[in-house]
Amino acid sequence: MIGSSIRHDANLAWGWWLRTVSSPGWGVVIVDEDGREWQSVRQAFWAGRLGMSLDSEAVVNEGLELLLAMLASRSRDIVGPVETGAALFGGDPRFYRLWTYWLVSTGLAEAGRMRTPFEATVTHEGASVIRMLVATRPPELADIAIGKDAMALFGTQGSTTECDRERFDAAEAALRRFRFAVIREDLFGQHMVEMLHRDLSDPIPMVRTIWTVVCSDAGSRDRLHLWMHDRSDRWSAWGELVLQKGPHSLTQLLLELLNASAPSGPPTSGDRPTGTHLAIPNRS
Questions:
Q1: Cα–Cα distance between 184 and 227 in angstroms, integer?
Q2: Is 105 a domain residue?
Q3: Which of 46-55, 128-137, 270-279 has the highest mean predicted lDDT (pLDDT)?
Q4: Does residue 68 lie in a domain region?
Q5: Which residues span the domain enclosing 206?
Q6: Long-range contacts, stretch 9-14, CB < 8 angstroms, 24+ apart
Q7: Is there a single domain that holds both residue 47 and residue 98?
Q8: CA-based nearest residue to 236, from 120, 159, 137
Q9: 167 and 255 share a domain?
Q10: At residue 268, does pLDDT exceed 50?
Q11: Whole-number Å distance between alpha carbons of 138 and 62
C-alpha cells in the first residue's frame, strides 16, 4: 500500500515523496516507493492507497470528490452526522454510515477508544489528502470552494474583515475563483442574509443578488449567517440550485437542513434558551 511507511505531514499534499520519470510510450509518469507507475497522483492514491479500480475515470473523480467532501466535513467538526448525511448522501443513513465506518478503516480519520466513528477526526494523512485532492481537482470543479479553510479569503466571520458586498464586488485574483458569497446586509430597515453571484462569463461580470431572506432582528440574522458560513463549502452547490430552480428551492433546502441539524428529541425548557432561535418569516 502506497504511503504505509511514510510519516505524513498535514502541511504537505499527499504524494510529496513520489517521483516523476519519463517512461517510453507513456511520457511522464508517477513512480511510487514500490516502483509502480501511475498516470497521476490521483490514480496513485485511488488505486495504490485505497485499492480501488481505475476502470472508469468518471467513477474515480466522483469517488474522490465525495471523499474530499467527507474529509472536509470531518476536519471542520462543525456539521453533525444527520445533516452531513442529508447534504452528501440524499438523506440515506445507511450509505452515510457505511462511508463513515469505511473512512475510519482507511486511517484517514480516527475515532480512538472512547469515540464512535461519527466523532472521528481527520488524521495527518487525511489532512494531507485534502491538500492533494483540492490541488488536483478536475478543471470543471476548480471554481467550487471546498471546506471552511478555503473561505479564509473572505475574512473572519463576524469581524470587520468579513467579506461584504463591496469586497466581493471589487475582489480580484484569487477571490475571482468564488462565484457565490453569502453576506449579511441591512437595507430599508430590514435585517437580511443574501447570496451574491458573479457570472465570470459576462463581458462585465457584475455582482447581483440571487437569493434573500429577511429575519425579524439582527441577532436572528447573524445566527443564520453564521450557520451558513460554517457550511461555506456548499455555497457553490446552493448557488447553482438557485440559478437552476429559483430562490424558493434554496429556502426549502435550508429549512430541511436546519431541521436535520437541530438536536434530536423533544425540547425541554432548558434546551432552548430564550432568544437563540432562528426567525425566518414566510416570504411567499
A1: 12
A2: yes
A3: 46-55
A4: yes
A5: 149-261
A6: 9/124, 9/128, 10/124, 10/127, 10/128, 11/131, 12/128, 12/131, 13/128, 13/131, 13/132, 13/135, 14/41, 14/45, 14/49, 14/125, 14/128, 14/129, 14/131, 14/132
A7: yes
A8: 137
A9: yes
A10: no
A11: 10
Determine the pLDDT at residue 151.
Answer: 43
Q: Count Cβ atoms below 10 Å from residue 84 Cβ, excluding itself.
A: 22
Q: Tell me if 284 is assigned to some domain.
A: no
- Assigned domain for 276 exists: no
Based on the fold, state whether residues 39 and 107 are members of the same structural domain.
yes
Say how many domains are in the chain: 2
**Burial of 276: CB neighbours in 10 Å, binned 0-12, 13-18, 19+:** exposed
Least confident range of 64-73, 122-131, 141-150: 141-150
C-alpha span between 113 and 98 (Å, rounded) = 19
Greatest distance between any 2 Cα atoms in the chain: 72
CA separation for the pair 271, 214 (Å, rounded):
26
In this structure, is the dihedral angle defined by the CA atoms of residues 128, 129, 134 and 137, taken in order, positive or negative? positive
127 and 23 share one domain: yes
pLDDT, position 267: 46
pLDDT band at 125 (very low <50, low <70, confident <90, very high): very high
pTM, two decimal places: 0.55
Amino acid at 223: R
pLDDT of residue 237: 87
CB atoms within 10 A of CB 236: 17
Q: What is the pLDDT of residues 206-232, one digit of tens each?
A: 778 999 999 988 888 888 888 888 787
